[in-house]
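Archive entry. Fields below.
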Amino acid sequence: MSGHSIDLLVIGAGWSGLMAAYTAANAGLKVQVIAKGLGSMHWAAGSIDLFGYAPDAPDTPIHRPLEYVTGKLAKEQPQHPYALLGKDRLVAALDSFVALTHELGLSYGGAAQPGENLMLPTAVGAARPTYLAPQAQLGGDLGRSEPMVIVGFEGLRDFYPQLIAENLAKQGIQARAVLLPFDVLTDRRDSNTVQQAHGMDDPARRSRLISELKKLAKTGERIGLPPILGLDDHAAVLFDMQSQTGATVFEIATLPPSVPGMRLFKAWRNRLNKMGVRVDSNMEVVSAQSEPSSNGAGPSVHLVESATSARPMKHRAGGYVLATGGIMGGGFNSDHEGHVWETIFDLPLTTPQARSEWFNPVFINPAGHPVFSGGVAVNEAMQPLDGDGEVVYSNLWVAGDLLAHDNPILQRSLEGTAIATGFAAAKAAAAAS
Amino acid sequence: MHTESWQSVGPTLDECIKCNICASYCPVAAVTDLFPGPKFVGPQAQRFRENGQPHSPDHSVDYCSGCRVCNEVCPTGVRITEINTRARAELAEEHGIPLRNRMLGRNDVLAKLGSIVPGLANFGLHNGLSRTLADSVMGISKGAKLPRWANDTFAKWMKKTAEQRLKSDKKVVYYHGCSTMYYEPFIGKATVAVFEHHGYEVIVPEQGCCGLPLLNNAEFPEARKYHQRNLDWLTPYARQGYPIVGTSSSCTLTLKEEAPEMLDMHGPEAHELTMAVWDIFEWLRELQESGQLQTDFRPLPMVLPYHSPCQYRAHRIGSPSLEIMSLIPELDIRESHARCCGGAGTYVYKKEKYQIAMDVGAELFDFVKEQGAEVTMTSCNSETCRWHIETGTDLPCRHPIEILAAAYGLYDLDTRDLV
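PREDICTED_STRUCTURE:
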């Protein structure tokens, strides 16, 4: 691309940013990732939600999400990112992601029946729909019939086995709870799931837990644990747990920080590094410069600048993928009057610009709130559009939670849209180079 | 209470969403119960440090090593390290500063004294008896590697070789810092050689300690004097348009950002200095971008584990050392993603923190071991980190500028001298 040492600069290191970087590097582009901090992968449960709930049936999970988003949803909401992508690109993106997870030794899988949503237990014992999950979460599939024993640890925050088991039992799932002393895991007085998971990388610690689990599990029971089955050596920890207890051992995702997300992030970043892609956090993009239209190509992004300890640092690339996230990720900012803006390029937004229009009157509202479905409108190539439907910058592509016309939290579609639009943005950038 | 302004960090407190990413990446909280993690002692405890609160609520903030990994990973831009450093200063104001910390904070004075009679000073400090005494009486950890005084200071060498030094219209100001001055003048020699290799005349103006050890040991009023001194000495060069280039990543960070911010010294001259200060590889990368970087490299056939230290990453300039060293033929650089070497400046010298520093460093030491037996040396930009990495790996650790000077054929990595 146009003689730059970097072909594509990806701004943001969450699901959509890493997927864009990976896809573009695979297509032969020289890629770099910069991000303000570490993002969405550290917050989310680590599974890929494709689509969970439709607005007209907020209590009934979507059974076959791929069919739904490429069929009914695409017809009814033609501006939804899934509708823009179409089935082929969506499937290709998901396939590419699954293949990557196998390569990384952190395999993801889906429901026993292909195309269906899985139902997995949450840390409060509710059932949540998701499409793809890490191997270690699949054992918790609520569609399976084996009874569960949920094992927690005294003093470990964010994981209360009694609560989980009772709520699962109310939904007709056979589950009981066991609370083990904290010192089965560690000699520390206090630590979080990330530190526990890291501790399990040590085979000696692991065997201490395994011998306790052997004592308590009844024949035929599945063992549910907080996400502590290793951080850097997860596959080996999971293997040891299952083979030595003889039971299916699974993890239930907890509140952030997300251990499954951190495992994936670390392995994915290392993989990108090996592909020659640098991933730097603590680089907040604070300004951008554009170039006017030439040769009828429309205006383009000339460079972006990130804050340093002194002078702003200039980053020039042939193309740019904007994957800075939504309200949580910092892709948007707002003021007290309700004015909302995109933080780097000040791209046109569909978001209501008055606070009174942000929310519907009812808080828990199946239709969601307008502020959450606002964002950057794009064309099928993920290029940002202005109010007249014109492409804003010819060498800028947008992915992830910045996008307009969806509501990822309500619809349970955050990772699915992020991965698919990151993939599509990179493909479009590669095609343009 | 509250002699320090919280203005520059206060607003970022509201950005904390309690996601715990900082607590999960904090290298200190990962190895000890004595430090609960950045979120707890930072944004959380900060609510109780507002005006009118009589006591700082959380003494465990003293165990923060100041490595800044929390800032690096925070997705919302909370300036956690700055909050914690200020909280440490408030604690000190309330409870006083131990003599040991006052000494560690003034290592420039110690370094200067020792350099008068370096042989004697080395003998006095580097023997089992004095280290045992320092450990038991002062609380200065016995295991931590102390630097040795050089026979000649860097300034003496510059004076001695004045006639051989290159004269040129292209001039650069070198900020060498205390360590190069008194302990490691060879870093300065390598740097001068690289500058001159690019046709630059090197100006070494009068300069003093950047004040970081004082900041880390909660002596803000004294640090303010140190920074003012450097402003007086260095800003005139900044005004003349000279780049002020340094080799110690912590010192340059302090001059650029940490001193003005922590000490609320936001006057025009502090800004002028900030804008003129460069890390040496940041500056070399500029040369590269304008096509002026010398590329007459000799091959350096070796495996080199490289650790980008926390204070270097806190510059937020990417990894220019890695970028430039990558140009050297046959040099197989293995970048460490370890969060911190554990040493964290004066942290490792405090007896009660020594084991923590070793446990934190294990991530990096293990990484070096994993690179195989063929590894003969490692590389890191910061002096105190290099000393700690040498303790943890039993391998010599070199500044990237030494590696680069060697690749230009100007420097011997074993004797650490110009060739």
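CURATOR_NOTE: The mean pLDDT of chain A is 93.
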